[in-house]
Amino acid sequence: FFESKSAEGGDGNLSGIVVGESDNMGVGVGTWSAGQGTKKPIPLMFDEALFIVEGSLDIESNGVTHHVKQGECAHISAGSLLNFSSKEGCRLVWVTSPPTWKSMEFAWEAGLIK
């Protein structure tokens, strides 16, 4: 159910499953391996809530790092510039509202965000 997938070179988490994709909300699950993190900041184009199911995740948002551990939830506002990392690894559930994760993938592929 939680399968670890990372971009080539270990650049962060790519969610293994997307559930209920719609025009209003995206929902998915993901896994970060121990020591995995983003290589560069990610601009967030939507509001996002992350619930840590297992382990912990460090979320650097606009220069401030928040350590979110098992059983905790983090809300991140649209417009934030993010870096993610996990020393021990984690499993998480995420919810985005609007636009959906699919919209971000389209923008990334179209070169609208880097």
Question: Would you kindly provide a brief summary of this structure?
Answer:
This protein is mostly beta strands.
List the helices and strands and how they pair.
Layout: E1 17-19, E2 26-32, E3 36-37, E4 42-43, E5 47-61, E6 64-69, E7 73-76, E8 81-86, E9 90-97, H1 101-109
Antiparallel strand pairs: 1-2, 2-9, 3-8, 4-8, 5-6, 5-7, 5-8, 5-9
Word description of this protein:
The chain has 114 residues and is mainly beta. 8% of the residues lie in helices and 46% in strands. The chain is built from one helix and nine strands. Strands 1, 2, 3, 4, 5, 6, 7, 8 and 9 form a nine-stranded antiparallel beta sheet that branches. β1 (17-19) and β2 form a beta hairpin. The radius of gyration is 13 Å and the shape is globular. The relative contact order is 0.27.
Task: Quickly list its features.
114 residues; mainly beta; globular; disordered N terminus
Secondary structure tally, helices: 1
Reading the helices and strands in chain order gives EEEEEEEEEH
Biggest β-sheet description: 9 strands, antiparallel
The average pLDDT score comes to 76
First-residue to last-residue Cα separation: 29 Å
Oligomer: single chain
Q: Beta-strand percentage? A: over 45%
Structural class: mainly beta
Helix content: under 10%
